[in-house]
Amino acid sequence: MHAFNPVTTIDELLKAQIDDGNVSSIKKKRIIYAEGKTAASIFYILKGKVKTSKWNEEGKELITGLYHEGDFIGFNALLDGGRYRETAEVIEDAELVIVSRTDLELHFEYNSGFLRKFLDILAGNIAEKQEQMLRMAYSPLRKKVAEALLVTCKKYNPSNQGEFSMNISRCNLAALAGVAKESLIRTLSDLRDENIISIRDGKIIITDIRKLEHLIYCSDGKPNI
Q1: CB of 50 within 8 A of CB of 88?
Q2: Gap between the Cα atoms of 166 and 153, Å rounded
Q3: What percentage of the chain carries pLDDT values higher than 90?
Q4: 71 C-beta neighbours (distance < 10 Å), count
Q5: I want to staple 49 with a disulfide (CB 3.0 to 4.6 A). Which of 20, 92, 144, 222 is the partner?
Q6: CB atoms closer than 10 angstroms to residue 213
Q7: What is d(CA 14, CA 31) in angstroms, rounded to the nearest whole number?
């Protein structure tokens, strides 16, 4: 067992784990952890993209989060009975830093300030998910699809630099929106006809972010601009 060297910042924690060789490369479509399994580790994404999702009794998937470089995944389980409450799957080849629950708890015990930093991350993550789930539950079809497009855009194009092209499968986008794939495809076709998006080589390109946002936040779901 290696000697425990306490850290005071998240950057120090990540550097220590990388120096110890706790890094794993995982291919697209591989599962990082599964819902219901004991949470032995949390993960930091060095590169790549990951989704988290839950499945209902009818076998329908609902994507609960999209993550990329700079995000932690799995730490919700630290305060949720010690079991993962969702499944994490790689959607673009990823490189992950693995932090064991045991190491993390030792750092928390040593430095309460370090613990608070993680709790802040956790609180923000929970609030974001609750807001997303609420909107998805009560919005009409067009708004659900528009919301899924906007969530993806804000996650992977935060600076909103020009047209944004998303290479995300229709199944994943439907699961993020909480709608059937067939309904998603019809709605995407409508949005394309309204010049809000375009579709090239299977990729969805948001061409008018202002119209997309208006569709979400106006009362009737129609882009009356």
Answers
A1: yes
A2: 8
A3: 44
A4: 16
A5: 92
A6: 14
A7: 22
SS3 per-residue string spanning 93-157: EEEEEEEEHHHHHHHHHHCHHHHHHHHHHHHHHHHHHHHHHHHHHHCCHHHHHHHHHHHHHHHHC
Nearest to 89 by CA among 70, 118, 64, 58: 64
Amino acid at 164: F
49-107 pLDDT, tens per residue?
999 999 887 788 888 889 999 999 998 777 666 889 899 999 999 999 999 988 888 88
Token readout for 76 is: 């919700």
Question: Across the chain, how many H-helices and E-strands are there?
Answer: 7, 9
The residue-averaged pLDDT of 28-44 equals 93
Q: Tokens for 177? A: 């929106």
Rounded Cα gap, residues 225 and 64, in angstroms: 31
Contact 90, 49 (CB under 8 A): yes
Residue 224 pLDDT grade (very low, low, confident, very high; cuts 50, 70, 90): very low
Q: 180-212: per-residue pLDDT in tens?
A: 999 999 999 999 999 999 999 889 999 998 999
- DSSP letter at 38 equals B
Contact 118, 108 (CB under 8 A): yes
Our CA angle for 101, 111, 37, nearest 5°, is: 15
**Per-residue pLDDT at 3:** 59
